[in-house]
Amino acid sequence: MAARSKLGRWKRERWKKESNVSNSTPSTRSEGSGTIHEISGVRNSEKTQLFIRHSRYSKPTRNLLQSREAKMSSEDTNDSEEQRKRLRKSRKLGLCQKLSIPDRASYLEGQTPFQRAKNFDDSYFEKLNLLNWNEKQAENQNIKDTVTDDNLNQSEEDEQSEAEVLSSIEVEPTLNDKQRAALYCELLYTVIHQLGARGKTSSLTPGDLFVYAQEALKISEETHRMLYAKTKEREPPTCIIKVEVVEARHLEAKDADGLSDPYCMLGLITDEKEEEKIKNIRAHRRKSKSTIREVLDGESMHVTTVKENTLNPVWNETFMMDCDDKALLKEEDRKLSKIRGISGMGRFFKDVMQSARKSGEGGNTDDFLGYIEIPIKEIPAAGIDEWFKLKGRSSKSHVDGHCHLKITLTTGKKPDIPYEIKHLYPTTLDIHGALLREFIHYDCENYQDTDSKRNSTELCPQAEFILHQHALQNELNDLQQVSIRWMLFSHHHWLEPMKYSSLNVLVSTLKKEWKTGALSQREEHSLVKSLKIFTDNCWRLLIKYRDVFPATDKGKLSRLINLLECLSNLYKLEVFKNSIKEPLNVQMSNLLKESALAWYKKVYAWKEPQTKNEEAMLSAMVDVAESLVTDMFQAKACYRKIFAVPNHVYALDDYHGWFKQSVLRWLDIAQVKAKERIKRAVEIDKILRIDASVSHSTSAIDGVGCFYQIREFWKKLAWPDPSGSYVFVMHITNQICSSGSYYADLLFDKMIKNNYYDKDPSQFDVSEQLCVTLNNIEYMRLWLSKLPEKLGWEDVINALITAHGERGGRHARSALENMLCSADDDMLNKVADAIEHIGHRMGVDIKRFVFQLCCAPEDTPAEEVVVPLLKYLDDDLMVLNTSVVKSVFHRILHFIWEIVIENFSNGIKANGGRTASFYQRQCEALEIVQSFFYADGVGVPLERLQLGNYKILVETLALRKMSTTELIQHYFAERCGEQETAEEKYGAVTFKAFYDFNNQKLQVEVLNAKNLPPLDTNGLCDPYVTVELLPEDFYGKEMKKTEIIKNTLFPLFDEQFDFDVEPELLRETGSCLHLTVMDYDVFSNDDIAGHVYFNLNNVCGLREVVEGGFSNVPQQTRNIFHPKPGGRYFEVLESRDDEKAQRFAKAEIDLRERTISAHA
């Protein structure tokens, strides 16, 4: 037994592993000229074992199986062979067994799908797809792949190209000696009086700057000394500090309301008085009697406005302060390296955020909020724009907040430029431009000497420092600087081309800095003229874009992209708008047309043959055509993306539209051909498996192969318009879906015609043809389910959404899905019909076995009575499991499960009066059968097993397997539930109920009743109330009653009753207090006015302690009602045969009749 048990477990584990490889999983097999997806199955020889062995069961079921195995342990090792003989005897396996091995071999020998296709229609579809119709398209695709780069915009821009040099650009004349001397004097003045800290250029000494200037301007050492001495005699400029107090944040609250009224006080402290004033300020901080205003000079003090009630004030106020001190500017040392300028000053700039001034009224002193000290020598030439943290009076002081300051340096009113300079360069901008021009030429010469090329608009550090100082000292704004830089670099570009990305940076800066009026009329005119020259030169270059920027060179293409971006940004400049005659897209479109015409004329002239015979002319025509095709594909794959001309359509863009009707016509023919092939394939198909590893027959392969060829045709067609391809995709989808339904109809008709349905009423037999038919239909259905992916539905739908909006996309998706769903439903209906036939044929035997199960003696365990049913299901399902694919087998399992549930339900209905033990056994038997169908997770999922009729059956069994006492309990629980929704039709009763836990007594006080029905002839009644606890099994028949109150419909009782009750009984389901309102009659039985039921599960005092005891228990008022015996629990009690149930049901019915008769 142990060995056999191991064998069973090994088989189960192997089956589980094999079942994980779904019978419906697509696997690649050769079909036609391509590959298709087919449904592969597990080899039958490895799946031939009892289906029942694939499950894990409950403990009773396992005991049953172990007992069965114990009985079989005495059999010899040929048990499996005997089992197969038994199955063959009781179940036919179909025509497959009747064919000899040679017959089966001849059925498939030499008949590949391609050979069968040749016999069907001379390989109509296969021959079409074998044509080399895309040879030229493949060649063009290679061109496209060469020039297409998704990261083209990120490609590195090439160095300058000789092809971009324009010979028409004039080289500016060199400077004469006077001009060089004038420029050098101005440069010396700028370097001598440089402003601000050196910062990043701290390594550059004045000597370094002079050396660079001498080389750039070609100044000799002797000339330098003469000009330097002359420049030193010029009046120095005045240093001005411009301070903008922007805002502050997170200041300290000084007022009682948690806010402050902040302002700023600004001042300068010179070196001469630095120590003295610092001491005074510090003394002021220690003594509040004096103020900063008293310490600082009045002229050097500046105060912002006061911002009331805020801790985050915003000022945006600007102050100009003269920090000139000639004593500090004296020349202490003649050495050039000792010249310091303003950076040598020892003054300190103070921004004091405090209230250190005295108020005009009462001499009150404002509160101190913090201060900032900034040494002037640390202010860089570029200025400061940052947040400063406020400081306290001392290191022990605590201050909060930050202040945002912007500080810049300038020279204020500069002394007049000497006449010998001014008559050569009238304005400072002319001098700046001349310096920049010379620096550009000098830097370019240096780059040429080092065999490298200039690609940036940035100059060397010495040049940039000199230019920045000159602009700073002469108050040239940012727009003036970038304008002159653009004019000179853009002109120099056509002599020595640089990177367009650098020029684009200048254009972007121009756009950013542009302010109307920031340039003089002369300066603006010069800028516009420079922009116009640059754009004209760009158009001249773009005419030759095929030669200058070839499509095969990504670096050159990157230059073209940056050139076009620069041109586009230039056209957006405000200053250039009035100079634009036509929009950029119009000019670009005209240029491309002109360029194409010029290129074609050149190619035509080049290809024109010397001799004019037909062969030479034809060859030349082919060469021109090939050049045109190549250029067209380069344009579409590369240049079209780069130029991005709006609304531009190439002449051949819609060439595919010429073939639309032809393609549709071919698809119509293909549908006819496909159905003819499918019909022929079904006719010759013997509905047998191709081999042991494949579950379907040849017709399924032939049908799917036909659809595969149609799909391949569409794939090779490569329709270029995604949204326009919708009509073809819809046509192909409809064609394949309708052909799939047609195949299912033919196959199903053949199955009926050849009697693959076994109609022998004596027993149910599973034929192989029936199983293969189901597998064929399922194979076709699963292949069709892949159509959305195979035909690219999502790409088409997304294109439609782009072209026609969401509504158009939803309509297209709905139309396609409806076609697919319709075909899927047709095939599923065919499969369902066959499964229903199998189920109904099996249902006859299942009904018999369930009937036997119900009729078995009640003392027989469920594990034994269920054996015949499981053995029958095991035998039949084993055959089906080895014959159909997994998806079909699961549908069969589910359908048979529904039949089992239906028969179980019918058995319960037919045995309605049986005892609780009978229903308990039925419940256990159902659990065992459910485990059989669940099969340890490889059968029907539990969530599907436990749906629909199963739920109703389980609820019915759970109800009927209850004991009579449990049913009575639930019956009274239902009564309590009805009480909560009862209307006040027959009056109401008010009472109190309390459980004294210490004495284990239930105390009930009946207080009163109201609106009782008049049951006496005088329109009144003589009411009293009976009190009892239910059910009687728990509390017995103890009944107590109140006094009778004569002639009233609103009696007042105020009577208390005590019941000795254990707390556990009160917690039982259905435990309730029953109050019956009676009408006393002298000469007849007392009438019943109605009933009140009160649930005792949560009576006061049972689960919690009530302070004050019974006296503090709230009153309960319940409506009197007339309960009608009924409900699911009463129905079971009424149908049950035992005496207790019958007695209870009769008593409830009598009570109801007595109650109703009193009100008749």
From TrEMBL:
GO biological process: exocytosis
Any one cellular-component term (Gene Ontology): secretory vesicle
Chain coiled-coil ranges: none
Residue span of region Disordered: 1-89
Localization of this protein: Cytoplasm; Late endosome; Recycling endosome
Start and end residues of each MHD2 domain: 863-971
Pfam families: C2, MUN
Main location: cytoplasm
UniProtKB keywords: Cytoplasm, Endosome, Exocytosis
Sequence ranges assigned to domain C2 in this UniProt record: 222-388, 985-1110
Domain of life, per lineage: Eukaryota
Residue span(s) of domain MHD1: 619-747
SUPFAM superfamilies linked: C2 domain (Calcium/lipid-binding domain, CaLB)
Annotated CDD domains: C2A_Munc13-like (cd08676), C2B_Munc13-like (cd04009)
Family of this protein: Belongs to the unc-13 family.
Protein name per its UniProtKB record: BAI1-associated protein 3
Organism: Pocillopora damicornis
